[in-house]
Design brief:
Layout: H1 15-24, H2 29-45, H3 47-51, H4 56-60, E1 65-66, E2 76-81, H5 94-108, H6 112-117, E3 119-124, H7 130-133, H8 138-150, E4 156-162, H9 166-175, H10 181-185, E5 187-189, H11 194-198, H12 220-227, H13 256-260
Parallel strand pairs: 2-3, 3-4, 4-5
Antiparallel strand pairs: 1-2
């Protein structure tokens, strides 16, 4: 199938790489190829998004947060505190955040267990203002849907909204037609009812912000894991990561040490 599409730059086709796409589509060959093609097409069609890869401020603000331990089904838990967006208006654009999320997923999806078990995403909308919500334009939301739902080999077992205001309900109504049926069935709007969240994710797996028994989440944990032990809140990092599979002449190259980090 790959050789029938010379118009797409398939920059990596080794078995380990293709296996994650097969697992994401339960070994349906046609669906797997569609996902693989869309993965590279998304990067080729959004080169400006990947050329400059400044992710440090997004990561230190918890975009995303990654819990150390999985949920009761072995799924990795990613968390987002939406109100932290826009606190650095010149540093944390939505594109920066989406880059940081995609980079984090690229690193996490190297783990075969996560290729099989998948991920859970929890978004806390507490204190997310109407002004902030007004910046979530249809084009921005479409970019996120294309990047995460249609173009990445990750299995999301659930997307959970908590403490969402009415205008987030309205936003969800706008994007709902663009979501696949399978995705829609896995989106849960809990409001401030954490009991319904705990029916799906055990409190023992969650930090106290979500009514769990774990300590409050440290925003810097994942940033330090990804950027290395020298990371600190005063230093800005520009990270280039070859596993994002963008052509080198479009900003995809980097030295080996940076790639490891």
């Amino acid at each position: 199938m790959i050789v029938t599409r010379p118009d797409i730059g398939f920059l990596r086709t080794d078995d380990d790489f293709i296996l994650r796409f097969l697992r994401a589509r339960k070994f349906d060959q046609a669906e797997t190829f569609r996902l693989l093609a869309q993965y590279f097409q998304f990067r080729q069609q959004n080169l400006d998004m990947f050329q400059s890869f400044k992710v440090s401020f997004s990561l230190m603000d918890g975009f995303p947060g990654v819990l150390e331990n999985p949920d009761q089904h072995g799924r990795k838990i990613l968390i987002l505190f939406a109100s932290n967006w826009d606190q650095r208006p010149n540093e944390n654009s939505f594109t920066d955040i989406l880059r940081a999320i995609l980079l984090s997923l690229e690193v996490l999806i190297e783990n075969p267990e996560l290729q099989i078990n998948g991920f859970i995403l929890i978004i806390d909308w507490s204190n997310f203002s109407f002004k902030q919500a007004s910046k979530l334009t249809p084009n921005i939301l479409k970019l996120a849907i294309e990047g995460l739902q249609d173009s990445f080999p990750a299995r999301f077992g659930g997307i959970h909204f908590v403490n969402q205001p009415w205008y987030i309900h309205a936003m969800y109504t706008i994007i709902k037609p663009f979501l696949k049926d399978k995705t829609r069935k896995r989106i849960f709007l809990h409001g401030n009812n954490l009991n319904s969240l705990h029916q799906l994710i055990q409190p023992e797996c969650l930090p106290s912000e979500f009514g769990g028994t774990l300590p409050p989440y440290d925003m810097g944990i994942w940033a330090r894991t990804l950027l290395g032990p020298d990371y600190n809140d005063e230093t800005e990092y520009t990270l280039t990561y070859d596993a994002l599979h963008v052509r080198e002449n479009c900003g995809g190259g980097g030295d080996k040490e940076t790639m490891k980090r």
